[in-house]
Design brief:
Length: 475
């Protein structure tokens, strides 16, 4: 009788598609686990419970690796149940899923986004105005952190699930924001996986699934080798020891030895104001500089120089304005770490050469000191750069400016300011001449000259910060 009952139960399970037929025919030991980690529905669950989402990828991977290792059935079931108590997922989208041959399953306005959606194309629990990536990730993480009661020093593994229609660029922007915000909470991101793990056709959206790691060898099983081609992870998926802050948050090396002549207290204040003025000018001119660069480059000169400005302002209080030589080297480090690209390398070289020139000064910081440092920075950089005067580059503004400054042979600070006024004018004239120059360096030299109708972005950038310094000194 018991055997007949067992066969009848197996028959029912097979009809309900709960188990593969091979397992049923062999009457293998099975268990039932209900996945429901959607934290968007916390407090408003239906009679069938919360929805299962992309967090099931954690379960498939860990349970599968345990099975491969030969762990017992009961151990695997217990582990999966423990995982379910430490798993939460939240989804958001900008557009709905469309079934082949049909329109979208629901409508999302161009300025809206859907919160708390599932993976079967259904709408979410709330529709809000579109937010930035930072704001959107905060909404999602706040819900997950509250659900899992995450606190500082907790270890987590994160899945960022691309729902199918999100670009790789957007996917990784969100991934970076997730890591940044969790780290800000003191939460340790042991692993971060991102990709199309569980899609909803071409839905433009993402889900964040977080597993709180505090039991067993879950990380070991996540890192276990698999031949599944869709698995996005590896032991190098952001181990904490390899995590570094964004370049924008990196500070100049505080251990850098103070060298060279010392600036007076009043001189320090003036120099600090000049740095701030130049940085703010670069930041405010970002769009104009990008526009100039877009016709013949990759359209990022403004962004590159703005990052330099941000880097200087963020660490202005830590910069060694008392020792201009050390300051130049610190600024070189900021340029190298924040700017990137050719501009970053050139500005880093310019500042390094200037610092070396100032270091050798033994009579204090004078107008002559700055004149010599300016010339040394240009000459030193041109030794390593392919750019030459007339090639349509930043040097077509920087070199005439230095020539004009030197021609005044300034000795007093008043003479220096007068010389700087001429330098600004020369830089602007040199920048304007680049309008008719044929580019011989950079990406512009590969572009049809008919597209090049304005001045060079790098040269214009020089006029921006040089004029800002002059206007500050006039005060």
């Amino acid at each position: 009788m018991q055997q007949l009952l067992d066969l009848y139960l197996l028959h029912l399970l097979q009809k309900m598609c709960f188990m593969p037929s091979a397992a049923l025919l062999k009457a293998m030991k099975v268990g039932s686990i209900v996945l429901g980690e959607d934290c968007a529905l916390m407090g408003q669950e239906s009679s069938v419970g919360r929805r299962g989402m992309c967090g099931m990828a954690f379960i498939f991977k860990i349970a599968g690796a345990m099975s491969e290792e030969g762990r017992s059935f009961d151990e695997i079931v217990d582990t999966v149940n423990a995982i379910l108590q430490n798993l939460a997922t939240f989804g958001v989208c900008l557009s709905a899923c469309s079934l082949p041959g049909s329109g979208p399953l629901f409508k999302v306005g161009k300025d809206e986004m859907e919160l708390g959606l599932g993976v079967h194309g259904e709408a979410g629990i709330k529709r809000v105005k579109m937010c930035t990536a930072e704001e959107t990730v905060k909404i999602m993480l706040d819900a997950i952190i509250k659900t899992l009661k995450l606190k500082s020093s907790d270890d987590v593994a994160v899945f960022l699930n691309n729902l199918g229609g999100t670009s790789k660029l957007e996917q990784w922007v969100v991934a970076g924001e997730v890591h940044k915000q969790l780290t800000a909470h003191g939460i340790v991101v042991q692993r971060l996986y991102a990709g199309c793990i569980m899609t909803s056709l071409e839905m433009n959206g993402v889900q964040i699934s977080i597993l709180k790691l505090h039991k067993g060898n879950w990380l070991k099983y996540l890192d276990a080798e698999t031949k599944a081609c869709g698995w996005p992870g590896s032991p190098l998926s952001v181990p904490p020891t390899a995590v570094k802050d964004s370049p924008l948050s990196e500070q100049p090396k505080e251990e850098m030895k103070l060298q060279g002549p010392v600036l007076s207290s009043e001189g320090c204040k003036i120099l600090e104001r000049c740095l701030r003025a130049a940085s703010e000018a670069l930041i405010s001119n970002e769009n104009r500089l990008n526009e100039l660069d877009s016709a013949c480059g990759d359209g990022d000169t403004g962004t590159t120089l703005r990052r330099m400005g941000d880097g200087i302002i963020n660490h202005l209080s830590k910069l060694a304005v008392t020792h201009p030589s050390t300051l130049m080297k610190q600024l070189s480090s900021v340029a190298e770490k924040t700017m990137g690209g050719t501009s970053g390398a050139l500005y880093s070289l310019l500042l390094t050469m200037a610092g070396m020139a100032l270091e050798s000064e033994s009579t204090g910081v004078t107008v002559k000191s700055w004149t010599q440092a300016w010339r040394a920075s240009i000459n030193g950089t041109l030794r390593y750069s392919q750019a030459k005067p007339g090639d349509r580059s930043m040097f077509d503004a920087l070199l005439p400016a230095c020539d004009a400054f030197e021609s005044h042979k300034p000795i007093t600070w008043a003479q220096g300011i007068k010389a700087l006024e001429s330098a600004v004018k020369a830089a602007q004239e040199g920048c304007e001449k680049t309008r008719d120059m044929k580019p011989r360096v950079g990406r512009a030299c590969y572009v049809d000259t008919s597209y090049i109708t304005d001045v060079d972005a790098g040269a214009y950038g020089v006029t921006v910060w040089l004029k800002a310094v002059f206007n500050e000194l006039k005060k």
